[in-house]
Amino acid sequence: MKQFANTLVKTAPLIMCSLSILFAYKTGLFNIGAAGQYVLGAGAALYCALGLELPWYVCLLAAAAAGALLGCISGALKAYCNVNEVISCIMLNWISLYAVNSVLKDFCPVGYKDTFTLVSRNSSALLPSLGLNKVFGSESATIAIPMAVIIAVIIWVVLEKTKFGYEIKATGLNRNAAKYCGMREKRNIILTMLIAGALAGIAAAMMFLSGFMEWDINQSSVPAMGFNGIAAAFLGGLNPIGAIFSSYFIQHITDGGSSLDTRLYPTQISDLISSLIIYLCGFVLFFKLRMNARIDGKKKTNGRGRTGSVGNRNKGGTKLMMLLIQYTLVFSSVLLLVALGGCFSERSGIINIGLEGIMVIGALGGVMVLHNLSPQLPGIVILLLTVAASIAAGMIYSLLLAVASINFKADQTLVGTAMNMLGLALATVIAKAYNIATTSGADNSARIAFVENKKLLHLLKERNSTGL
Length: 468
Hints:
mainly alpha, 19 helices, globular
């Protein structure tokens, strides 16, 4: 029962994140910034709880306000400057993460990376349980669980039964037509992102004010809760009521992945399943058109896909400067190639959000070939074969985006996001399986080394010996 309660505790914020995604999507906006709004909401809630020692309802409102502010920024940039909301949201995600890490570092015990527990510093900031902790046998079971369900019902009423809901859906279907009909489309865009950000901020408050977990000030990646909300929203058919059940399903898969025997299975299997769900959700429009055409006895309609418009002291200092320049050139060359790939895709009308996943699959292809080449081969041959394998793997994987966007009219942003998650999960699963198959008597629970230093050193020696 306790495990079931823990799953419900994490399902509540996931429901809120999925509501944030689908609410913005009704206006034609892809709120990939739900993760950043979740982070800023967590920072505001914990600062009010630990720093100001305010009660839980004030912390909850502060989290909603912080998330709303961040969402409002992206909405205003989209409405008045026509800045792509995906780009602005991604940038704000990282700004929010490091800003919150900097603010909350003063609320950690000495020598620890996690913030103080609410029980030890301010128990009034904990969400009330109303007896749910006794029912489920877990102190983390709070009013967040029924509150998330109630908010989902309210969002459904707003979208389906109110004038405002009709206006934001009309704005999403055709912004210019909505403006021609007298609707204030810019206001609707900003207000929609404001509400979406508030929902994501409340999600963070539900998680961290329940006492289930503390904030890790050393984390260098945005929490996955916001991205899992994408899967839950689309799996639920972009319906607030459906998001309740899909969120529990996604969270159940995630918890199941963390409970696997890591000696045999990688925990990323749950991410692999979630990313496949997101990818296949991009084909909803295609299947809907095919099914309608079949039912009506008509031929397949030619729908238009959404396209994107993208002395010793001096000697030591010199060595350090040269080392910095060397690493800068190495990473800037990679960044240059990725930027060229993004520009090339943008010229063809495709917003290639999946570049990160393509890079991971390309790296996996190159490393797999490198591991199977004979060290006796010339260095230039090893280099060329490895690069060729990386290019081939990246090209094949990028076909997923091309086929989905062009042939099946899938949403490019959604498919690109799924490809990023799928690429990382797929690479980890394949590498883990390869490591088990090729290693005997080794500790398979150790982290997988994708590139062996010995082979790289051998490659560099061969390169230097051949003068290339």
